[in-house]
Amino acid sequence: GLKKSHRDSLLKNLVADLVLHERVRTTENRAKALSARFGRLMKLIQKKEKREAIRLLPNYCAQAEHGAAHRKLIDELKVKYEKRTSGFTRITRIGMRRGDNASLVQIQLL
Q1: Engineered SS bond to 60: which of 27, 41, 46, 103, CB 3.0-4.6 Å?
Q2: Rounded to whole angstroms, how far apart are CA atoms 47 and 32?
Q3: What is the 3-state secondary structure (H, E, C) of the chain?
Q4: Per-residue pLDDT tens digits for 29-74
């Protein structure tokens, strides 16, 4: 697979894209890893105070589009999912990728 630094960077960027666009098309293994990371991130945001959560966000989510993903996480998604403890995402199979026949899925926020 990937080196740890590359894998972490990939997941941070996928989290930022998922937050901004609320759905991402990717391979099945990446979607499963993304779902787990997003679940951990939401639990962390729900537990911590706002200033602590802001300080910890760069460990989980890339600073996409001048912090738009960070702002959306803190301002909108924290409120949206305040009563939910898990199951923040849905993974739906959408077929196979042309070229290497990898299983493609769409992961979306609920």
Answers
A1: 41
A2: 23
A3: CCCHHHHHHHHHHHHHHHHHHCEEEEEHHHHHHHHHHHHHHHHHHHHCCHHHHHHHHHHCCCCCCCCHHHHHHHHHHHHHCCCCCCCCEEEEEEEECCCCCCEEEEEEEC
A4: 999 999 999 999 999 999 989 899 889 888 888 887 778 888 888 8
- CA 49 from chain center: how many Å? 20
pTM (2 d.p.):
0.89
Residue 70: how many other CB atoms lie within 10 Å? 21
101 — phi, psi (to 5°)?
60, 30
